[in-house]
Specification:
The chain is of the alpha/beta class. It folds into three domains: 4-100, Methylthiotransferase, N-terminal domain (Rossmann fold, 3-Layer(aba) Sandwich); 162-401, pyruvate-formate lyase- activating enzyme (Alpha-Beta Horseshoe); 407-459, OB fold (Dihydrolipoamide Acetyltransferase, E2P) (Beta Barrel). 30% of the residues lie in helices and 19% in strands. The protein has 13 helices and 18 strands. It has helices at 14-29, 53-69, 81-86, 88-93, 182-186, 194-205, 227-232, 244-253, 271-279, 294-299, 306-319, 338-351, 378-401; strands at 4-10, 32-34, 43-48, 75-80, 99-100, 164-168, 170-171, 190-191, 214-218, 258-261, 284-290, 324-331, 355-360, 407-414, 417-419, 431-432, 442-451, 454-459. The chain has a five-stranded parallel beta sheet, sandwiched between helices. A five-stranded mixed beta barrel has the order 14-15-16-18-17. Strands 6-9-10 form a three-stranded parallel beta sheet. Helix 8 (244-253) packs parallel to helix 9. The longest helix has 24 residues, at 378-401. It is globular, with a radius of gyration of 23 Å. The two termini are 37 Å apart.
Length: 476
């Protein structure tokens, strides 16, 4: 008999999804089974995101929503980045939560004495401003302490429910970008041994129910994978030998049909790494650029400028004209001028990226940017963001239109939905397909139409007008 049912809600980036997958494996090893919905679960777990203020607010709202939806007697646990960053402060602010546990601590199953019972009624869904003074002068006892530590990276990985999977290869980050607080609670970079990563990939690829055919490698700073291990073992790599990431990419590519890399710092995009990516057959480059104006990037403690970025993009396109590019940018960073913003708009128009995300600056306690002058009003930052989004939407639509009439290999993620190498899972558009194609299959597909960010495809040789999957929302 199972110990109970669990519901795991994941917020934030793909790295969080990997953490959730491993937590799910831990719970199932401990005798729990997944619940069909949070209302029927005995244990509700929220894996939170703390990257920017909007993400923190979404995390708080989700916790409060699930607190109100859970059944009587169910336990509510908050973990992830917010738990790691705010710890006891978060526990004190949310009395309806039974346990706040960062990833350095194990989750306690429902009914365990390690889970403190709910001591107060569910609070109204009001904003919680972490890091700011609160009126409460006598907070409740900490509910995030006294638990033995464990290594999330080393936990076994359950089988994937989809034909693709994220694989986290490192935790933490050695860079100190001016806007980012991640190193303060995730720590310095800690790369997994290559043998452990490859063992996880092998288990995913060999799963009986749904063999994984695409592996997406992720880390806070993926291009620096393995450098900490090289330094720890006393020396630089031999001249002419591949970097740890290149070696890993080559090994993973020998095990699965597709290998995709997310979050590459631009200065680490060497010719060797570019060649390794192109050799996988997935010419997809997710470059962490953040801006293009050199003075602003210097204030961000970031490398590069628009000219250098354009040179690298052009060099890759010369080597592979079908290469796909994604990046993200911050609007309203302290000191950003109208000239800086115009430079970013000009860059977007020239670079013709396939995909891009835009975010307004979020002031994070403890970061360099929190103390910088040159504050940009929120309304102005939002106006600049809208201008970038409007331009990029036009560029993305044009690049999607250009694929119509082409034949591409498509991996079917689910009936009616698949992806070519040009789309990363969950964040980019998809290819709408006939629902008859089974999940996990691979088919040569003619792209017959463009619908915003999505494409419509028909298997080569299929009757014209074959029905495609139901419309898919843009909220990916």
């Amino acid at each position: 008999m199972p110990k109970g049912r669990y519901w795991l809600q994941t917020l934030g980036c793909p790295k969080n999804q990997v953490d959730s997958d491993k937590l799910a494996g831990l719970l199932e090893t401990d005798g729990f089974v997944p619940s069909a919905c949070p209302e029927k679960a005995d244990l509700v777990v929220v894996n939170t995101c703390a990257f920017i203020e909007a993400a923190r607010q979404e995390s708080i709202e989700t916790v409060l929503e699930l607190a109100g939806a859970r059944r009587d007697g169910a336990r509510l646990v908050v973990t992830g980045c917010m738990a790691e960053r705010y710890g006891d402060e978060l526990a004190a602010a949310l009395p309806e939560v039974d346990l706040v546990a960062g990833f350095g601590r194990p989750l306690a199953p429902a009914g365990s004495e390690r889970v403190v019972p709910v001591a107060a009624p569910v609070a109204a869904p009001v904003p919680v401003e972490l890091g700011a003074p609160r009126g409460r002068t006598s907070p409740p006892p900490p509910r995030s302490a006294g638990l033995a530590s464990f290594d999330l990276l080393s936990l076994p990985r359950p089988a994937s429910a989809a034909p693709w999977a994220y694989v986290k290869v490192a935790e933490g980050c050695d860079r100190r970008c001016g806007f980012c607080a991640i190193p303060s609670f995730r720590g310095t970079q800690r790369s997994r041994p290559p043998a452990d990563v490859l063992a996880e990939v092998r288990s995913l690829a060999c799963a009986q129910a749904m063999p994984v055919k695409e592996v997406v490698l992720v880390a806070q700073d993926l291009a620096s994978y393995g450098r900490d291990r090289t330094a720890h073992h006393g020396g630089a790599r031999r001249a002419g030998s591949p970097t740890p990431l290149v070696s890993l990419v080559e090994a993973v590519a020998g095990m699965v049909r597709r290998t995709r890399l997310l979050y590459l710092y631009p200065s680490a995009l060497t010719g060797e790494l570019v060649e390794a990516v192109l050799a996988t057959g997935v010419p997809y480059f997710d470059l962490s650029l953040q801006h293009v104006a050199r003075p602003l990037l210097a204030r961000m403690r970031r490398w590069g400028d628009g000219e250098r970025f354009l040179e690298r993009i052009a060099a890759i396109r010369r080597a592979e004209p079908r290469a796909t590019f994604r990046s993200s940018f911050i609007l309203g960073y302290p000191g950003e001028t109208e000239e800086d913003h115009d430079e970013l708009l000009a860059f977007l128009d020239t670079a013709q990226l396939d995909w891009a995300g835009f975010f307004t600056f979020s002031k994070e306690t403890g970061t360099l940017a929190a103390g910088l002058d040159g504050h940009v009003p929120g309304e102005l930052a939002l106006e600049r963001l809208r201008e970038c989004v409007e331009l990029q939407d036009t560029i993305t639509a044009r690049r999607r239109d250009a694929l119509v009439g082409e034949v591409r290999e498509v991996l079917v993620d689910a009936p009616g939905r698949g992806r070519t190498v040009h789309e990363a899972p969950e964040i980019d558009g998809v290819v709408r397909l006939p629902a008859s194609l089974p999940a996990g299959s691979i088919a040569d597909v003619e792209l017959t139409a463009s619908l915003g960010i999505d494409l419509v495809g028909a298997p080569v040789g299929a009757p014209v007008g074959a029905p495609v999957g139901a419309p898919i929302g843009a909220g990916r």
